[in-house]
């Protein structure tokens, strides 16, 4: 039977060849040839054409639409998507193997089947019986939830077109393939082609589609990175395998703001929402322990209280060690340098370890001051209790203002922290009843003074 024509295209120089090589004969790059369908130019793009004969219109005259969203009774999930699932959108869910992607999507499928209409869960990773086992454990057996164990993306698309589900789940894109390409499933050519076909189906039939993608250790090629630009929304499920908490984070969203997080707890019966994550992250904190400080960080629009721990011990071999878990390593090196130079802490002969409890990763600089105080607290062996700490630290040792200070302070109070250490420059935003118990600091040295960890 004559096959659809394919060619191998070098991703580096654009050279095209009728067969694959390990190394591009044109530019000499290794492993850069990707099998691609030989199609007329109009069909080549992975995106569906929005309109055929469109002409320019003034933007002011374009009608605004508000997206109808499917709201599931899973608020943490809705929040991350920007308020709910948009029909016709394609969402890529990435994450390490075993983190809980299939579990989350099976739970979501079950809820959608109960509230929004039929759901087709296509899996190339497990048999229908294995999915059933998991579904029983999750008690996720809605009558409108259909399972299809197949890896042929065209067959899945056909079933979806006739079932017309409200939601289609593809688990995972790495196992999907089309017979039109010779490359094995999981190769870049197959990934791209399968995603482009699913995207076309989603847009044409208005089916909200969730696609699971594994992240490889290197995070390249076969990982979902190459797919990120083809889909509307990219979510990552993160967490550390040894902790029960899972963070669902949006890194790209055409239908909502990014950087929202949803917090879940992996239990025996699946993922449970954590609606008050601050309380959870602080639940095991020992208030009288030196080296432990409460930071108030902002994830998307939500303030979160987390415990920052530091341990400072004398260096035994040559160079002092710096180890960061949950904050950026370079940030830690910078903060220890600031503490040595601007606050006189003798850290040049000390190893410094910093850890954010609960497997959280803090990316924003507003947690700087908390890290500094944790280090100073461990160094001085003096606990910093009953206080939440907010502030960015500059190279001059100054404490810089942070955004959304009121929200952060309100969250801290909710969790029982009456007193907060905040940047002095933020103080005037905190008028009224909150201002009284705030300690405004202008520099790291002042902050150390305020908690009794300064070096005299
Ligand atoms: P899974 O969803 O299969 O991960 P992924 O699809 O991302 O590879 O999750 C697998 C892990 O989750 C597995 O180690 C067991 C754990 N788990 C629970 O703790 N409770 C549950 O109810 C389920 C279904 C899984
Ligand atoms: Mg899975």
CATH structural architecture of the largest domain: 3-Layer(aba) Sandwich
Tally of strands:
21
Cα-to-Cα separation, first versus last residue: 85 Å
* SS class: alpha/beta
Secondary structure tally, helices: 11
Biggest sheet character: 9 strands, mixed
Radius of gyration: 26 Å
Q: What is the CATH C-level name of the largest domain?
A: Alpha Beta
Q: What is the subunit organization of this protein? A: single chain
The CATH superfamily name of the largest domain is: P-loop containing nucleotide triphosphate hydrolases
Determine the mean pLDDT: 87
CATH names the topology of the largest domain as: Rossmann fold
Q: Would you identify the regions where 5 or more consecutive residues have pLDDT less than 50?
A: 219-224
Relative helix content: 25-40%
Question: How would you describe the overall organization of this protein?
Answer:
By secondary structure, this protein is α/β, with parallel strands linked by helices. The protein folds into three domains: 1-39; 75-275, P-loop containing nucleotide triphosphate hydrolases (Rossmann fold), CATH 3.40.50.300; 280-451, Ribosomal Protein S5, domain 2. The protein has eleven helices and 21 strands. The protein has helices at residues 41-44, 75-81, 101-115, 128-137, 153-163, 188-205, 277-281, 329-343, 368-380, 405-414, 444-450, and strands spanning 6-10, 16-17, 33-37, 90-95, 119-123, 145-149, 167-171, 208-214, 233-239, 245-253, 261-267, 270-273, 292-299, 302-314, 322-325, 350-356, 387-389, 392-393, 399-400, 419-423, 438-441. A nine-stranded mixed sheet has the order 6-5-7-8-4-9-10-11-12, sandwiched between helices. It has a seven-stranded mixed sheet with strand order 15-16-14-13-17-20-21. A three-stranded antiparallel sheet has the order 2-1-3. The radius of gyration is 26 Å and the shape is globular. The model is unreliable at 219-224 (pLDDT under 50). Bound molecules: thymidine-5'-diphosphate and magnesium ion (MG). The site of thymidine-5'-diphosphate has 15 residues, from helix 3 and helix 4. The site of magnesium ion (MG) has 4 residues, from helix 3.
């Amino acid at each position: 039977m004559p096959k659809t024509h394919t060619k191998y295209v070098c991703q580096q120089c654009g050279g095209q060849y009728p067969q694959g090589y390990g190394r591009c004969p044109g530019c000499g790059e290794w492993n850069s040839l990707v099998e691609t369908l030989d199609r007329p130019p109009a069909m080549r793009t992975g995106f569906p054409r929005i309109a055929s004969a469109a002409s320019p219109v003034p933007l002011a005259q374009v009608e605004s639409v508000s997206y109808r969203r499917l709201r599931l009774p899973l608020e943490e999930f809705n929040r991350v998507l920007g308020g709910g699932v948009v029909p016709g959108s394609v969402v890529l869910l990435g994450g390490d193997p075993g983190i809980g992607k299939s579990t989350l999507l099976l739970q979501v499928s079950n809820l959608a089947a109960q509230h929004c209409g039929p759901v087709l869960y296509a899996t190339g990773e497990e048999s229908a019986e294995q999915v059933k086992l998991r579904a029983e454990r999750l008690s996720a057996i809605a009558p409108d939830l259909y399972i299809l164990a197949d890896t042929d993306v065209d067959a899945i698309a056909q079933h979806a077109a006739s079932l017309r589900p409200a939601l289609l789940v593809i688990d995972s894109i790495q196992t999907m393939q089309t017979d039109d390409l010779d490359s094995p499933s999981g190769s870049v050519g197959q990934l791209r082609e399968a995603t482009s076909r699913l995207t076309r189906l989603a847009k044409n039939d208005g089916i909200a589609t969730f696609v699971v993608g594994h992240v490889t250790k290197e995070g390249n090629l076969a990982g979902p990175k190459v797919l990120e630009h083809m889909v509307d929304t990219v979510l990552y499920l993160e967490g550390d395998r040894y902790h029960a908490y899972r963070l669902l984070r949006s890194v790209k969203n055409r239908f909502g703001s990014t950087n929202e997080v949803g917090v879940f707890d992996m239990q025996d019966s699946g993922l449970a929402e954590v609606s008050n994550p601050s309380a959870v992250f602080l639940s095991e904190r020992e208030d009288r322990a030196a080296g432990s400080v409460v930071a108030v960080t902002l994830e998307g629009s939500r303030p979160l209280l987390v415990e920052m721990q530091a341990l400072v011990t004398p260096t035994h071999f040559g160079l002092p060690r710096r180890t960061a878990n949950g904050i950026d390593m370079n940030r830690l090196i910078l903060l220890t340098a600031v503490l040595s130079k601007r606050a006189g802490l003798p850290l040049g002969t000390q190893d410094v370890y910093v850890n954010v409890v609960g497997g959280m990763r803090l990316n924003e600089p507003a947690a700087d001051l908390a890290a500094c105080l944790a280090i100073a607290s461990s160094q001085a062996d003096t606990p910093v209790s009953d206080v939440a700490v907010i502030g960015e630290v500059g190279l001059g040792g100054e404490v810089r203002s942070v955004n959304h200070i009121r929200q952060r302070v309100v969250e801290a109070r909710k969790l029982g922290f009456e007193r907060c250490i905040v940047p002095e420059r933020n103080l005037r935003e905190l008028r009224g009843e909150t201002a009284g118990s705030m300690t405004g600091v202008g520099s790291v040295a002042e902050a150390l003074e305020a908690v009794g960890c300064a070096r005299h």
